Amino acid sequence: MEHIARIAGVSVPTVSRVLNGRDGVSSLTRERVEDLLREHGYRARHPARSGEIALIDVIFPEIDCAWESEHIRGIEAVASAAGVAMVVSSLTGGPVATGQLLRRLRLGRTDGVILAGGSSAGTMRAALSSLNVPVVALDPASRLVGEVPTVGAANFAGAYNATRHLMDLGHRRIAMIAGHPEIRCSQARLDGYRAALGREGVVEPGEFSFESGLTAARRLLAAAEPPTAIFAANDFMALGVYEAARRLGISIPARLSVVGFDDLPGARWASPPLTTIRQPLRDMGRTAAGTLLSLARGESIDPHVRMTTSLIVRESTSQQGGVQLGGERFG
Known about the structure:
Elements: H1 2-8, H2 12-19, H3 27-39, E1 55-60, H4 66-81, E2 85-90, H5 94-106, E3 113-116, H6 122-128, E4 135-138, E5 150-153, H7 155-168, E6 174-177, H8 184-197, E7 202-204, H9 210-221, E8 229-232, H10 235-248, E9 257-262, E10 275-278, H11 281-296, E11 304-307, E12 310-313, E13 318-319, E14 323-324, E15 329-330
Parallel strand pairs: 1-2, 1-3, 3-4, 4-5, 5-11, 6-7, 6-8, 8-9, 9-10
Antiparallel strand pairs: 10-12, 12-15, 13-14
Helix pairs in contact: 1-3, 4-11, 7-8, 9-10
């Protein structure tokens, strides 16, 4: 604060008033001090003692589906129990919204940050690196280096089990609709599929969206030898497969078995109910929040947590030839 005051030509109490959002500072002086704080990456922080953590920030690339909602519910449960407030933000507003978010964080309004999914990309991590604030990456989109703790899911194992489930039902023409190639979990799920199959298989690219699942499934089902089963790398794309099959008059699961990934709340209400790989999304949120609070208190943590996925068998898969298993069970 003394350094900022000196180069701004103001008193230390003036810098303090700017940092704490108090009145008594002209707009020009406030703007000059804030610019210098941003330029120097200033972040006022004192080691948190028990009960002193007041606010954490949770940042998503976007918030548009139940995937984010489940994470938020888990984070909120832990924060609420600890008496800690939380602010949820997304980066969908572009550079302006991102700049406003970073400005608030730089001015010391948070005790820790959870970066979810693609928000843990290099740009955001680099912007936070000088703030002396604990950061946890929840389901990071890319492989992280350095000291950032991570919480993720066993994507390879989940995809392996999904593919093995279809093989155990007698399917051999098993295609996959993969996720975005630049997202880390997409590659892990693709690798799990290929490991179970023992070969490359037939893979169509997707974007983790309903529309991409629909487009990819239409291409697969129009082939001379269409697959008898499709593993989609998330539930939204699996529902796109449902729509492609409906348009082509292909019955699920009599003529086509479908498996998704995530087990979002709507999966069980699909028609037929969707067999899928359950990611413990809410528990992942809880674990990320607990890790962040421990970091803020200076406690020891497990720096890299990978949570178990489970096969949930419903009515969208059957033995090749159409013998439906029915019901819901864990595998």
